[in-house]
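Team,

Forwarding the record for the chain on the shared tracking sheet. I've put the sequence and predicted structure together so nobody has to dig through attachments.
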Amino acid sequence: MYITKCLHTAILVSNLEKSEYFYSKILGLSKIDRILKYPGVWYQLGDHQIHLIVHENFSNNLDNKQKWGRNPHIALATSNLEKIKETLTKHDLEMQMSASGRAALFTQDPDGNIIEITQV
């Protein structure tokens, strides 16, 4: 067996409207058409997709509330981490800088899913 790349990441959300605002307007991801009938939204990032899937009773329990990066998360790349920090601050979103000292931060979507953003 030879795995060649990751195709998509599925993220459970409870409120599609709030999540779509976060991923589309705050993070600026590009929405794409989807063919499935259940509620959700898909985004394209290069050759990878993020699939938001609605689960009305979804509840996210962080195992490590002090270090968000030590919880399940998706990592995204940016060329301008300072701009990301400004945008998150403007929208009153919490963030934690990476404890490793590298140029990376962690934030949460409206359902508490952890998003890592790293400057590359």
